[in-house]
């Protein structure tokens, strides 16, 4: 069964192997989790992780802690960015293998309202076409409800048939298309249905 795991240093080797798959497929930047450098601005000192650093257990632990911290309202972030809960997608039968990631943005900026939505997700190329994205999005809905997000805005590119099917299978209803992005509203459901690990 697909589950959403809190970012954890134990997934280092699998995460980095998946990152290499994404890069080979031309998808190095995905749902925010492929970004290892966030530039400094007026109120943010910036953060940067190198591949060499992430290869070390200590460096990757710092990275995983940063991902976890991004859910906190007072965690440093670039101007205009909102708190974001990251979860890494795993199969509970093989929890040491990173299958992808999912990001829940706690509120919408004008850009997120038009383009990005509340939830972004990605599945590593070797794990696609197995229902992983649909299961991950469905697992995220109680988390969204627990954050007071209902309904949930999820978007996809007009030409991304796989993502469209994932959203519709999760109950998404198309509102419109803006600048090449299909915008769907998905009911989040009852927050008490969320597993304790996600609350």
TrEMBL record:
GO MF annotation: an example: acyltransferase activity, transferring groups other than amino-acyl groups
Gene3D superfamilies on file: 3.40.630.30
Enzyme Commission number(s) from the entry: 2.3.1.-
Entry's transmembrane regions: none
Record domain N-acetyltransferase: where: 86-171
Domain of life of the native organism: Bacteria
Keyword Chloroplast included in the entry's annotation: no
Record keywords, A-Z: Acyltransferase, Transferase
InterPro entries documented for this protein: Acyl_CoA_acyltransferase, GNAT_dom
Keyword Zinc applies: no
Name of the protein described by the UniProt record: GNAT family N-acetyltransferase
Native source organism of the sequence: Phycicoccus avicenniae
């Amino acid at each position: 069964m697909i589950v959403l795991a809190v970012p954890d240093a134990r997934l280092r080797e699998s995460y980095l192997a998946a990152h290499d798959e994404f890069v080979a497929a031309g998808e190095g930047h995905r749902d925010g989790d492929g970004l290892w450098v966030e530039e400094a601005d007026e109120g943010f000192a910036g953060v940067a992780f190198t591949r060499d650093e992430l290869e070390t257990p200590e460096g990757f632990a710092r990275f995983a802690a940063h991902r976890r911290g991004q859910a906190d309202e007072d965690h440093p972030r670039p101007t205009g960015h909102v708190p974001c809960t990251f979860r890494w997608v795993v199969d509970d039968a093989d929890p040491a293998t990173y299958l992808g990631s999912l990001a829940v943005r706690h509120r919408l900026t004008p850009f997120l309202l038009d383009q990005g939505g509340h939830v972004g997700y990605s599945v590593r190329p070797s794990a696609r076409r197995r229902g992983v994205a649909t299961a991950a999005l469905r697992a995220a809905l109680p988390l969204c409800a627990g954050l007071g997000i209902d309904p949930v805005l999820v978007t996809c590119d007009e030409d991304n048939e796989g993502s469209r099917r994932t959203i519709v299978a999760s109950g998404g209803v198309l509102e419109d298309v803006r600048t090449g992005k299909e915008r769907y509203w998905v009911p989040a459901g009852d927050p008490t249905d969320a597993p304790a690990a996600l609350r």
